[in-house]
């Protein structure tokens, strides 16, 4: 096999370990993309090509998987990714107001990244924390019972 | 009242480690199953206990397992057990509670279930955002391997089992069991045609059983205490306990393990603390975003598969979402259809094209631009996207809240048309 240079030794080791859990290495594709994203923040075309080679798939097939999922970023994102739940229980409990506050304070719309590259704002579906609505994820960490004060405090804490 | 599934779970309480879980009686059921029982005894026990799947459809678990081919010689083709921990149904937060609260309970359930099915590999397919659950499960698996509860020759029973945690990356359709199998294989998560059913040809064409987290968590308790005990936990004919939940404008939203068949009113008033001051209940989705609305007249129904089904809805995941009188029913349905349209896998035309159109019309209503003919168009979609007309149950599920809202909240749709605005938000649109 041609040597894979677009991935680090750590990435290759972690992906290979995941692939050993399955009859076929392709089954590790989501895990592999997430490993790349853990190290690089997002998944570039070069990474897709390299991972596909490692897992014995065509890059097109792997990209079909990558683009199917909401949590795989095929474009660069900010240093911090904020994902606000917009599903039904959070909507009833006022996530639209929270969203407006976030847009206001960050000066961006959903799907955008702040000019200083600090924050990307995205909507996300129900997080299974409906009893603590409205909620959002900040770099994967769940923040619950959101209101204006809480948003201000959370943003101030991200550096 | 007995609460077997949550006996080790409490607010602020850390999950038990292996030693603590064992001290609390854990892995006794696994020991009994693997050393004293044969596969067919356990299968019979589950059938007698009348355990029904907690993933939404309520399919009898024993019956599902009985379709799996059983081998005389363990060396034949591999089989797989897959735990559905995708939990992406809007308004649902019960499997998270079980995995974060008592990970060893799920692992013990998997050991017994895999033994019964002669599966030597099990995957826990878990949604990407449940990182804490995934970490806790991996930790529990590591502890079990070190103590001979997983791996080869478990508890000297000659049964081998490996469990792997497979984290997903956020797509609702992955919860549909055949789409889940494609997703696990590393393919685009579109559903598969049935038959063949996964029990015969699932992961990589091997016999595979897919069960929900809560379903499998019941198994150790049934093995420990028997079918008659399990049935006696319930208030009605559907057996066992159930994790019920309530979200929306109630005083104390949350999830509780209660007898199957507990009346809706009791759950909302006694456990969720009733409606918040200034809010009245107008309706509720009994078991997640894809179940049909019920209303005040249904508050005395028993929360079980049979009663909720008879009333024209589904028990679904058993986690209710409350519609209050200060929330626009049309807006709530629009929010749900936005979700379903976005999460359609795009495989079949009625769902891929129909759901965005439904969302569009509902958005028009919310902006005061709904027309009387649109009511007819929406009604037609509930048939076009209904059961039997699409490749999987995603679109019919999406039509549940719409169809029932058109029935129960018709006057609210009409008020949007007549006032050319949303009576709740005051948003007013100009007619084109
Ligand atoms: C669109 C769709 C999404 C689903 N999502 C889930 C899910 O997140 N978790 C789950 O356990 N079952 C889900 N199901 C049901 C599964 O297809 C399957 O019936 C279930 O996992 C079987 O487990 P059980 O028999 O233990 O209930 C979903 C079904 C559909 C049609
Ligand atoms: S009904 Fe929707 S989700 Fe199901 S196969 Fe068709 S397009 Fe995909």
Explain what the structure shows:
The complex is a heterodimer of chains A (159) and B (432). Chain A has helices spanning 9-19, 29-40, 45-54, 59-66, 88-92, 95-106, 148-157, and strands spanning 80-85, 119-124, 136-138, 141-143. With 159 residues, chain A is α+β, with helices and mostly antiparallel strands. Chain A has a four-stranded mixed β-sheet, covered by helices on one side. Chain A is elongated. Chain A starts with 8 loop residues before the first helix and ends with a helix. Chain B has helices at residues 18-23, 28-36, 39-49, 61-66, 95-101, 103-117, 131-146, 177-184, 213-225, 227-232, 264-271, 305-310, 329-343, 349-366, 372-384, 394-408, 410-419, and strands at residues 80-85, 121-126, 162-167, 208-212, 241-247, 254-259, 281-285, 294-295, 319-324. A five-stranded mixed β-sheet of chain B has the order 6-5-9-7-8, with helices on both faces. A four-stranded parallel β-sheet of chain B has the order 3-2-1-4, with helices on both faces. In chain B, helix 2 crosses helix 9 (213-225). The radius of gyration of chain B is 22 Å and the shape is globular. The mean pLDDT of chain B is 96. Chains A and B meet through helix 2, helix 4 and helix 5 of A and strand 3, strand 5, strand 9 and helix 13 of B. The complex binds flavin mononucleotide and iron/sulfur cluster. Flavin mononucleotide binds next to strand 4 and helix 16 of chain B.
> Radius of gyration of chain A, rounded?
18 Å
Q: Average pLDDT of chain B, to the nearest integer?
A: 96
In the CATH hierarchy, what is the architecture of the largest domain in chain B at level 2?
A: 3-Layer(aba) Sandwich
At the fold tier of CATH, the topology name of the largest domain in chain A is Glutaredoxin
Average predicted confidence as pLDDT of chain A: 96
Q: What is the structural class of chain A?
A: alpha+beta
Structural class of chain B: alpha/beta
How much of the sequence of chain A is in beta strands? Answer: 5-15%
Give the strand line-up of the largest sheet of chain A.
2-1-3-4
Q: What percent of residues of chain A adopt helix (DSSP H or I)? A: 40-55%
Q: Which consecutive residue ranges of chain A, at least 5 long each, have pLDDT under 50?
A: none
In spatial order, strands of the major sheet of chain B run 6-5-9-7-8
Tell me, what is the CATH class of the largest domain in chain A? Alpha Beta
- Mind describing the biggest β-sheet of chain B? 5 strands, mixed
Total number of domains of chain B:
3
